[in-house]
Specification:
This protein is α+β, with helices and mostly antiparallel strands. The protein has 3 domains: 138 residues, no CATH class; 148 residues, no CATH class; 167 residues, no CATH class. The chain is built from 8 helices and 21 strands. Strands 13, 14, 15, 16, 17, 18, 19, 20 and 21 form a 9-stranded antiparallel β-sheet that branches. Strands 5, 6, 7, 8 and 9 form a 5-stranded antiparallel β-sheet that branches.
Length: 475
């Protein structure tokens, strides 16, 4: 026990004062910008240490070092470090002592001069594994509030969530059928972050099946530069032994020097996670400024998306990316793949990736048309647009949500617009009951387009484009 260090610090802070007397204010002994209320709190804590009331001293000191990204009282940090180092009023925690000493080592006051050698001594005592823990605490803060947790999933399956000092990440270890796998979780592990308790939610899906899907939520208050805090949140699903990231974002923002306690903020007041009336699992961010609602895809849907991505990568490998073509050529009107955005925005492209078609139709307008959703391209309403673009070289990126094409320097494109033919729009329909996977399909018969300089081109066969949009809630 380093009673000599503690005694020396007390002398530095309050020279000439016996234990029975109150020490003088410590503002001049800590950083020059220490507020009067902090100085009084630090002085009261030091008096408690003088009286060997270590538990109360630690309680008073902890709030003075919570704001890890801003001002930290050198006196408060130093004395709290000595309490952690010696196990006085708090469980002995050498990595926390190490982090606190290191936090003030670069200051200019007397406690900073004392802290430097002590910080280096702690590193020597800790060893490699616990050194990592000290470094993590230096980066994040000693009062991050993260509490490891273990949740039972089924009779023989569980998930354990912890803070990895080695990788500086939040990790989840899943045990399934006797095998374990550790994966990172999305988490706001920023300097000064203060975590809320971890949340595990099990939802029966499909309803009445007895099967359950398991979700983990990690939320932490993150300090901003303008004396405000954002509540960062992430949602992940446990699928077998895997951790699948579902969503992340900000739930709310508050003003203040410190975030509210986890008791005064309930996660479910800010974000919901449940089975909706359609039988789908969805989450909803409830704060007005951040509000959104999204459905959580199931394992089958994720697998389909992954297969689609693999197929697209395989198709991309067959593309001659160095090929150059005449952008003034006529379109082929042949499209092998497509993407959908929202409900009625489709973008399709040719195998060579040198031609695209974009069909945009206003959803509200289409609903007003009733069952008649066939349109003459010679007299299209302004709510519908059909455009073909021809490029001089293959395009790697296709935007399904915008009619703006971003070209690299030196690239050329020509635009062709529909002037005749019949456009048939099949309104999006759900591909699976209770989901929001919607397939939008377009067919154009006897299509004729006009391009640069008034050139005309007619498609010898129907043009078809179809794609699934996920997510895409019906309005």
């Amino acid at each position: 026990m380093r009673t000599l260090v503690l005694a020396t610090a007390l002398v530095v802070c309050a020279p000439g004062y016996p234990a029975a007397q109150s020490p003088p204010p410590v503002a001049s002994q800590s950083r020059s910008d220490t507020r009067p209320d902090e100085a009084r709190a630090a002085a009261a804590a030091i008096q408690a240490i003088v009286q060997a009331d270590y538990t109360n001293a630690a309680t008073m000191l902890k709030p003075l070092v919570d704001n890890w990204t801003g001002r930290v009282s050198e006196a408060a940090a130093f004395f709290l470090a000595t309490l952690y180092e010696n196990g006085l009023g708090v469980p002995q925690d050498l990595p926390r002592a190490c982090a606190l000493y290191s936090r003030i080592e670069g200051g200019g006051g007397p406690f900073a001069r004392l802290a430097g050698p002590l910080a280096r001594a702690q590193f020597e005592r800790l060893g490699p594994d616990r050194e990592n823990e000290c470094v993590l605490l230096i980066n994040v803060g000693v009062n991050h509030g993260f509490a490891p947790a273990r949740f039972m999933l089924d009779a023989d399956n569980w998930v354990a969530v912890d803070l990895s000092s080695k990788d500086h990440t939040v990790v989840a270890t899943v045990s399934a059928r006797g095998e374990e796998k550790t994966s990172p979780l999305q988490a706001a592990l920023n300097s000064g972050s203060i975590f809320l308790p971890l949340e595990h939610t099990a939802l029966e899906w499909p309803r009445g099946s007895g099967s359950r899907r398991h979700f983990l939520e990690v939320a932490a208050w993150v300090p901003l530069l303008d004396s405000s805090w954002q509540l960062a949140w992430s949602l992940s699903e446990i699928a077998g032994k895997d951790i699948v990231s579902v969503a992340e974002g900000t739930l709310t923002t508050i003003a203040g020097n410190a975030p509210p306690s986890d008791v005064s903020v309930e996660l479910r007041d800010l974000v919901s996670l449940d089975v909706n009336e359609a039988g789908s699992i969805e989450f909803a961010v409830l704060d007005a400024a951040e509000a959104r609602r999204e459905r959580v895809p199931d394992v089958t849907e994720r697998r389909e998306v992954q297969n689609e991505l693999r197929n697209r990568r395989a198709a991309d490998e067959k593309v001659n990316w160095k090929r150059r073509s005449d952008p003034d050529r006529s379109p082929t009107f042949a499209y092998t793949d497509a993407r959908a955005c929202g409900l009625l925005w489709l973008s399709g492209w040719s195998p060579e990736r040198t031609e695209s078609i974009a069909i945009n139709a206003d959803w509200g307008f289409l609903k007003e048309q009733g069952a008649a959703r066939t349109f003459d391209l010679a007299s299209l309403p302004p709510e519908i647009d059909v455009v073909v673009r021809v490029f001089d070289r293959p395009q790697r990126d296709w935007s399904a949500c915008s009619d703006v094409t971003v070209l690299e320097q030196g690239q050329r494109q020509e635009t062709w617009r529909a002037v005749s033919g019949m456009l048939h729009i099949e309104l999006p329909h759900s591909t699976d009951q209770g989901t929001n996977r919607y397939r939008a399909s377009i067919r154009i018969d006897d299509a004729e387009f006009v391009g640069p300089g008034g050139a005309n081109s007619r498609s010898a066969r129907p043009i078809t484009v179809s794609a699934v949009a996920v997510p895409s809630p019906i309005q």
